From TrEMBL:
Catalyzes the transfer of a formyl group from 10-formyltetrahydrofolate to 5-phospho-ribosyl-glycinamide (GAR), producing 5-phospho-ribosyl-N-formylglycinamide (FGAR) and tetrahydrofolate. The active site is at 109 (proton donor). HAMAP family: PurN. This is Phosphoribosylglycinamide formyltransferase. One of its GO terms (molecular function) is phosphoribosylglycinamide formyltransferase activity. Transmembrane segments: none annotated. The record marks 145 as: Raises pKa of active site His. It comes from Ideonella lacteola.
Length: 214
């Protein structure tokens, strides 16, 4: 049984998707803890109601990023995770923290990386006149929103889209793709070679518009 720990800073809809798919599909895994840097993150309450252990490490209580990272790692490691899943965790993590979880930390980012790292991805994609947008699941490396790509989903940018409509379209795909990628990890189906991730069974690592997942 693989032990999954999820980090979030907000509503936690991706966390919910992972927890629900893990249970419904009987993955060889369990979400054993959810941690947040924000005490009022909506996702914490949902997890607690589900009987999942939760913890808050408030970044404002620490004088330095390193001190915050060290306490966060201490809290996480009490749960002995095989995999750390960043699900809308909006703090930059230091190199030492990232190295500690190297090869066992995934993130979802709401753009087709390497385009639009950082914040306001949907607004920037619309402003740039992009005809497609999407999301990326990737292993976390010290450089923000970089790291070996596990899977991507593409959605159209439609005439008249604003940040809200585009982000809703992307989020619906996040809820499909992120659990799928986490499942691949816990089933041992991801292989990393020269910084490129492949699925061991050759399964497609991209969702296109109009193409669902089984
Ligand atoms: C998601 O759209 C996720 O891709 C994004 O935050 C949102 C969290 O939503 N993450 C990032 O921007 C990380 N750079 P959720 O709390 O409902 O899962």
């Amino acid at each position: 049984m693989k032990r999954i720990v999820i980090l979030l800073s907000g509503r936690g809809s991706n966390m919910q998707a992972v927890v629900e798919r893990c249970e419904a599909e009987g993955w060889p895994a369990q979400v054993v803890g959810v941690a947040s840097n924000k005490a009022d993150a909506g996702g914490l309450e949902w997890a607690a109601q589900r009987g999942i252990a939760t913890a808050v490490v408030d970044h404002k209580a620490f004088a330095t990023r390193d001190a915050f990272d060290a306490e966060l790692a201490r809290v996480i490691d009490r749960w002995s995770p095989d995999l750390l899943v960043l699900a809308g965790f909006m703090r930059i993590l230091g190199a030492e923290f990232v190295r500690h979880y190297e090869g066992r930390m995934l993130n979802v980012h709401p753009s087709l990386l390497p385009a639009f790292t950082g914040l306001h991805t949907h607004r920037r994609a619309i402003e740039a006149g992009c005809k497609v947008a999407g999301l990326t699941v990737h292993f976390v490396t010290p450089e923000l929103d970089h790291g070996p790509i596990v899977a991507q989903a593409v959605v159209p940018v439609l005439p008249g889209d604003d940040e809200d409509t585009l982000s809703a379209r992307v989020l619906a795909r996040e809820h499909q793709l992120y659990p799928l990628a986490v499942r691949w990890f816990v089933e041992g189906k991801l292989r990393l070679h020269d910084g490129v991730v492949a699925h061991t069974d050759g399964e497609s690592q991209v969702l296109w518009p109009g193409v669902g997942v089984s």
